[in-house]
Amino acid sequence: MATSETYAAGAAAAPKPFITAERVVYLLLFVGLVALPFFSKGFFVFQVTKLLIYAIAILGLNLLTGINGQFSLGHGAFYAVGAYTTAIMVEMMGVNYMLTLPVAGLICFVFGFLFGLPALRLDGIYLALATFALAIAMPQLLKLSPIEHLTGGVQGVIVFSETFDPDVPFGLPFDPGTWTYLFTLFVGVFLFWLARNIVASRTGRAMMAIRDNPIAARSMGVNVALYKTLAFGLSALFTGIAGALSAIAVKFVAPDSFTFALSIVLLVGLVVGGVGWLPGALIGATFIVFVPNFAEEISKGLSGAFFGFFLILVIYLAPQGAGGLLRAGVGRVKRLLASR
Amino acid sequence: MLTRRTSLIAAAATALAFAAGPGSAETVVGVTDTSIKIGNIMPYSGPASAYGQIGGTIEKYFEMVNANGGVNGRMIEFITYDDAYSPPKTVEQARKLVESDEVALIFQPLGTPPNSAIHKYMNAKKVPQLFVATGATKWGDPENYPWTMGWQPNYQTEAKIYARYILDNMPNAKIGILYQNDDYGKDYLKGFRDGLGDKTSMIVAEMPYEVADPTVDSQIISLKASGADVFFNITTPKFAAQAIKKAHEIGWTPTQFLNNVSSSVGSVLTPAGLEASTGIITAGYQMDPTDPQFADHPEMVAWRKFMDEFHKDGDKTSNFTAYGYAAAATLEQVLKQAGDNLSRENIMKEAANLRQVRIPLLLPGVTISTSPTDFYPIESMRLQRFNGTTYEFFGDVIAAESS
Amino acid sequence: MDLFLQQIVSGFATGGIYACMALSVVMIYQAIHHLNFAQGEMATFSTFIAWQLLAWGLPYFAVIPLAIGLSFIGGFVVERVVFKPIENAPVLSHIVIFIALFAIFNSAMGFIWDFSIKPVPSAFGEGPLYEGSLLSKHQTGMIAVTMLVLVLLWAFFRFTRVGLAMRAAAANPQSARLVGIRVSFMTALGWGMASAIGAVAGILIAPVVFLEPNMMLSILLYGFAGAVLGGLTSPLGAVIGGFIVGIVENLAGTYIPVVGGELKLPIALFLIVVVLVVKPEGLLGRRVVQRV
Predict the structure, then answer these.
(1) ipTM confidence score
(2) Could you give all domains of chain A from N- to C-terminal order, each with its CATH number?
(3) Contact C273 A303 (CB under 8 A)
(4) Cys-Cys with B187: which of A340, B118, B155, B164 at CB 3.0–4.6 Å?
């Protein structure tokens, strides 16, 4: 797949100065996000929580598609597994919700890794169909009668049914909504940092080599099968943790929450943000959270049509997503500076 | 009547007055001297979008109310959002309505999974989740969820009516069931099994289908092969029409019981074929707009006038547009009863204080009653059989006890 | 045993629906080497046009060619207007455009014709084929037409210059361009044909499942499954694949205890994935050799 080479280039770059434009932007963004709940309404905070959760899920998808070059139209399934893991642990086993995140991530990692094994044999469209099949099957699997006692069947599971809200730890002076937001933000920042390190590591380079040219990668001694399944596992881990966070923020899971539409939405977020550019996840998530609402405000009956129209517009303006646009912009500025 | 502009100014003035005035013990949100803000959540897109018609009709109904001077002089400001039948989206929209739009209540949010998702939230926030558009049994639980109330007869009650009828009239029946494999289908199934009591062995086959299934042909063939002579059809309109048509095509002629959800003559039985539909038994609580026997009923005449004047794009053959009209009329009644005390507490109190109220378009003899311990507004239904052109009633109004 | 045969016959009939759609999937794959997610919605749209023309009182025999012709033009125009400008964008951007088209068509249909189901009359009459038959007249006719389209399609790719050019354009655009084939025009032509076949499929399917905007939502998936199973490069394979999916799905639903009925679709999909893992090019597809 012909994706960007941002990280391929970045990996070999010389050591940078401590203060770069990139770092300054990240710092400002982080400060802004931390300050947000203290200046806005609870509802908006919830929306941004949702945005961050989607961003984490898209980050996971990006590891698979952008870094390793494998398609997935079924990441909603991993999201669902993560969400149900947390819901069941909190509700049925009384585990503290914060402790469920690593478990959800681990379960999804194993699940993704195993799914990656047959996926090794499938390419392009066939892999797309297989993952899409997973997304379609997931809601039906979740309400299967033999596991109904765990999953609540078609009724789903209400999370925090006793307390209603996740408890704020250490007596911190936040209301539950703000705390859920901050918690999500910190988990998100950690995962983003983790993803960047993975990409810059030996593993990440192997994954990118496979993306750019599998046969060359193999001849250089990269274990293609291992790294492809590993990419699937890691990607599922990230998306699964996002799902777990969604169970905490929405406080309800049901088969209807995880239809194939979710997988499609994640893919849209990935492409709009820019395939292969990790921070694009945030931009993609912003698009999928706010643009449908905006389309609905224009016309209730034709909201879908307006959403589709905006989507086409975005792809016209930025065929490579926000990441591509940014690259083009930075390239132009650099050329301008160089020509002086 | 106030013009739009003066009413806006008045609204702004009262909003200021409220902000400045002393707080009362009861919470009055979304209400001014000239307006009441009411929220609603519907699936206007996605797999359940057929139900979106209900939201559209309610919106138009309140336009009519406003054109006639509003409720006790207050204009109704109706805000309706799309959740695409996705529970996480429902939560987002409910929070938007409560925390950002600051509505007085959320009226008729549709579907069991979406309502389940906001059930806790609405009760924790103490905002009425009033007359939800789903027949699940859990909406009538005033002790644990005093801010949530159903509207239509619940699925289990309806299924029990059929079970009772079968036990009384066809004790040797062999029953085949087709049900949608979700909360709604399972609720009916449970009610039906409960209704049969120790005679559940009368059920010879239960076939589930998924909303994603293109057809239910395979299930119908299995049901026929099971030797069933009674067919309980727990399906949504599209699948109901498919099932009726297929059964007819393959020459399977059981006594058919069809759940009320799909009893519409115009949008289910006609597409399925009137001949194929003849003999179908269903329990109704609402007049069918295409049924000739109600053509001259004054309420039906008024409804058609409403459709012509305020809802020209609406479907005059659909049960959904009639449903939305009746539901909206129920809320209007509650607001009228509440008078000038439109605190959330009082709205719930009046919703639980409906005594044998006649709501337009309900079947003759069916009324709405609630009390602080009875959160099931419509509880009576009538069995009716389709004769090829119209439903014929048989038996009396059945007032089934819920819970 | 009786039930077994009945389920196979019924699966065959339902498989006919999938086969119809699978042909349309193969057609677009031949033209652009992708699966078009909006294909189902476009076919539904075509069916709505046919329905609307019928409702306006046009006779059936005039409506069918008209609807198919309009769909052909529609597909052609969509390619020219929407896809031409982003020819060089990455694959995933194209997929997102498919999703956008899906949303636009679905929402527009709901807006124009609302979401209640509409009966579409059949060209082959109502009722069973003969007394006691599990196949209706319509289903028999539907399968016959599918076969006819299959033969036409096969002949088109095999014997006509345009068909050959289209295959060349999709398989190797650069070489095709060198021998004077207008590759971009061929792509648009492929879109037109795919949506014309989609219209046929929609008009055939609607009398069975009833017309509404979400009609093709799951049928398209089964069509994908059938086409992929049979081999995306082979029209015959796609049709056989469609029938197999229909039959397997019915048998799984009927005979696998406990979970069979609840998991008809996942079981069918699982089997397909298994087939693909063993034979990634599909049952009748050609292996694509990749150059390094």
Answers:
(1) 0.89
(2) 6-339 (1.10.3470)
(3) no
(4) B155
